Amino acid sequence: MCHIPRGRARRQLLVDKLGPSYLKMLASRALVQGLQTGFWRRVSTSSAAWAAHTHDIDVVDCSVPQYNNRLDTPLPDVPFVRNLSAEQKKLKEKEKGSWTQLTKEEKLALYRLTHELSFAEMRQGSKEWMTVLGGIFFFLGFTGLLVWWQRVYVYGDVPPTLSEESIAQQTQRMIDMRVNPVHGFSHKWDYEKKQWK
Amino acid sequence: MFRAALRLSVSGARSLTRSRPQYTASVAARSYSHGKQETDEEFDARWVTYFNKPDIDAWELRKGMNTLIGYDLVPEPKILEAALRACRRLNDLASAIRILEAVKDKSGPHKEIYPYVLQELQPTLNELGIPTPEELGIDEA
């Protein structure tokens, strides 16, 4: 997610781009938008500054190289952990010496400093598909209930022409009319024996 | 390098080393119907020279490695050795381990490539003290 100027920074941007006369026109709109988007934030503070102030990690600066976990890019642009604690800095210093002096845990720690996920972790899937499929079936079932209710409580009766006797009368009329006498309906009726062939 | 990986048979290590494809494949990114085509040896030599640069910097290492992994081949052990030594010069153990992981991942379904590469690289790994991902337990999620 990239940094989008909000509040004062946005208004400044608008002034720079459009000139002061537009500012008055847009000021109220920007104010409203600022109030709406920064619901619990001070309107006059841009979101990046506010986020840095409150350690909100959702703001990512897209203008500098970022860390990424990618199978096709084994060595990412920046290490995963940028701000090293004192202990981590000591470990980094030790890394400059012979690596045979490092313990297994230290080697693993060094790996995790630079990389968030190993290849195996990147490749592993999740069980999310089960949840998704379950959700699909659940909502299909719920829809089925709705459809059933609708059929029983909303639809009226079917027309009388679909009753047994009505259909019998209709069939007899179709036979009398010689419907599809060559290959179809009446062809299957034996007119001598007065029965279906 | 392990070109034409699809043609690797399972019949032993001999077929692993440089199974010659019927055509001399050029660098994976370009297929010329004319013009000079680079041989496997030239490709390997070029990459070994790249990583052997004494004052290689971190960006060049990353760029080289990411590009190499982008090709449709598994790099030869000698290229990887040069890359691991470059990591050593840059004091970057994590990248060295990552390179090994990437090689295993790059082999895909050809499970015999990675053990062979490790076998070839074992002296270098021991000398530099580079652990394999298996030793660190990161080969399983």
Automatic annotation (TrEMBL), chain A:
- Which key words tag this protein in UniProt? Membrane, Mitochondrion, Mitochondrion inner membrane, Transmembrane, Transmembrane helix
Q: Where are the bilayer-spanning segments? A: 129-149
- What GO biological process, any one, is recorded here? mitochondrial electron transport, cytochrome c to oxygen
Q: Does the keyword Transmembrane helix apply?
A: yes
Q: Which Pfam families match?
A: COX4 (PF02936)
Bilayer topology term: Single-pass membrane protein
Q: Which InterPro entries match?
A: Cyt_c_oxidase_su4, Cyt_c_oxidase_su4_fam, Cyt_c_oxidase_su4_sf
Keyword hit for Transmembrane:
yes
Localization annotation: Mitochondrion inner membrane
What do we know about how this protein assembles, alone or with others? Answer: Component of the cytochrome c oxidase (complex IV, CIV), a multisubunit enzyme composed of 14 subunits. The complex is composed of a catalytic core of 3 subunits MT-CO1, MT-CO2 and MT-CO3, encoded in the mitochondrial DNA, and 11 supernumerary subunits COX4I, COX5A, COX5B, COX6A, COX6B, COX6C, COX7A, COX7B, COX7C, COX8 and NDUFA4, which are encoded in the nuclear genome.
Q: What does this protein do?
A: Component of the cytochrome c oxidase, the last enzyme in the mitochondrial electron transport chain which drives oxidative phosphorylation.
Q: Which family does it belong to?
A: Belongs to the cytochrome c oxidase IV family.
The name under which this protein is listed is Cytochrome c oxidase subunit 4
Identify the species of origin.
Answer: Onychostoma macrolepis
Automatic annotation (TrEMBL), chain B:
> Which Pfam families has this protein been placed in?
COX5A
Q: Which GO cellular component terms are attached?
A: mitochondrial inner membrane; respiratory chain complex IV
Q: Quick one: a GO biological-process term for this protein?
A: mitochondrial electron transport, cytochrome c to oxygen
- Supply the alphabetized keyword list: Acetylation, Heme, Iron, Membrane, Metal-binding, Mitochondrion, Mitochondrion inner membrane, Phosphoprotein, Transit peptide, Ubl conjugation
Bilayer topology annotation? Peripheral membrane protein
Q: Where in the cell is it found?
A: Mitochondrion inner membrane
Q: Which GO terms describe its molecular function?
A: metal ion binding
Q: What Gene3D superfamilies does the entry give? A: Cytochrome c oxidase, subunit Va/VI
Pathway linked to the protein: Energy metabolism; oxidative phosphorylation
Q: What does this protein do?
A: Component of the cytochrome c oxidase, the last enzyme in the mitochondrial electron transport chain which drives oxidative phosphorylation. The respiratory chain contains 3 multisubunit complexes succinate dehydrogenase (complex II, CII), ubiquinol-cytochrome c oxidoreductase (cytochrome b-c1 complex, complex III, CIII) and cytochrome c oxidase (complex IV, CIV), that cooperate to transfer electrons derived from NADH and succinate to molecular oxygen, creating an electrochemical gradient over the inner membrane that drives transmembrane transport and the ATP synthase.
Q: What does the similarity note say?
A: Belongs to the cytochrome c oxidase subunit 5A family.
Query: What is the protein's quaternary organization?
Result: Component of the cytochrome c oxidase (complex IV, CIV), a multisubunit enzyme composed of a catalytic core of 3 subunits and several supernumerary subunits. The complex exists as a monomer or a dimer and forms supercomplexes (SCs) in the inner mitochondrial membrane with ubiquinol-cytochrome c oxidoreductase (cytochrome b-c1 complex, complex III, CIII).
Name of the protein in its database record: Cytochrome c oxidase subunit 5A, mitochondrial
